[in-house]
Amino acid sequence: MGEHAAYLEAARAAAAEAGEILKRDYHREGEVQFKGEIDLVTETDKASQALIYRRLSDRYPGHGFLAEEGLSTSPGAEFRWIFDPLDGTTNFAHRLPIFCVSIALERAGRLVCGVVFNPMSGETFWAEAGGGAFLDGRPIRVSPTASLDRSLVATGFPYDIRKTKVNIRQHDQFLIRAQAVRRCGSAALDLSYVACGRFDGFWEMRLNPWDSAAGALIVAEAGGRVTDFGGRPADIYKPEVAASNGLIHAELLEVLNEP
């Protein structure tokens, strides 16, 4: 373990505890509110966020925080925790067990550790910068698939899709060019699945930092490639992400940039 091992352990502990809230509430009838036309938030999102913030801010009072449900503190701090307390809220609200807790730590603008925990499967993905990527303690690597037409790829759609139609054209092109396309509803899990070889590639538009921070680091540490659609190194504060095993990345970008 590297110099950020203690932070990684703190993130794993917070994710596990928050995951118990998600698992506890999974079969309960809870209040669902709409932040937008199809953008949901539940009391479970809020309870999970409060717990993660409490655990990490108590332990690291000088750190900054950025999270989905309106949390942003100390943006100039050297260390900043970026997390989604429930990535896959729509799935959760419909009792589809594909959702997770995602926690990453940024130090001086560089991602140094990340954790993605699916409480329903019990799987925990994590990575530390320079230390590799793991699934439940076992090292993971991206897939060896060498061509897009043999690849299983994944994507997601923004909450304003009814108005903007964003990603529909690209999705349809991948349906023709790839072996198959999946839309699971959790970007953090999609990225983690690229890291362990279940998916060969992933792309999405209009993501937020908490959607991609942990997963992007996990892919990179598993030997994959994470960029924007122009092939430049990914920036979690910019809304587009293309991730792959590296071998199909040129083809992935080619489809994304077709007129």
Which terms would index this structure?
D-Maltodextrin-Binding Protein, domain 2; 5-stranded mixed sheet; 259 residues; 8 helices; alpha+beta; single chain; 2 domains
Write the layout of secondary structure elements.
Elements: H1 5-25, E1 32-34, E2 40-42, H2 43-59, E3 64-67, E4 71-73, E5 79-87, H3 89-93, E6 100-107, E7 110-118, E8 123-128, E9 133-135, E10 138-139, E11 152-155, H4 161-164, H5 168-177, E12 180-182, H6 187-195, E13 201-204, H7 209-221, E14 225-227, E15 241-244, H8 249-256
Parallel strand pairs: 3-5, 11-12, 11-13
Antiparallel strand pairs: 1-2, 3-4, 5-6, 6-7, 7-8, 8-9, 9-10, 13-15, 14-15
Helix pairs in contact: 1-2, 6-7
Integer average pLDDT: 93
Beginning-to-end CA distance, first to last residue = 45 Å
Alpha-beta classification: alpha+beta
The gross shape turns out to be globular
Which fold name is given in CATH as the topology of the largest domain?
Answer: Fructose-1,6-Bisphosphatase, Chain A, domain 1
Question: Strand order of the main beta sheet, please?
Answer: 4-3-5-6-7-8-9-10
Q: Label the CATH architecture of the largest domain.
A: 2-Layer Sandwich
Considering the protein shown, what is the CATH homologous superfamily of the largest domain?
Answer: Fructose-1,6-Bisphosphatase, subunit A, domain 1
Indicate the radius of gyration in whole angstroms.
17 Å
Name the poorly predicted regions.
35-40
Beta content comes to 25-35%
Write the element-wise H/E pattern from the N-terminal end onward.
Answer: HEEHEEEHEEEEEEHHEHEHEEH
Give the C-level CATH assignment of the largest domain: Alpha Beta
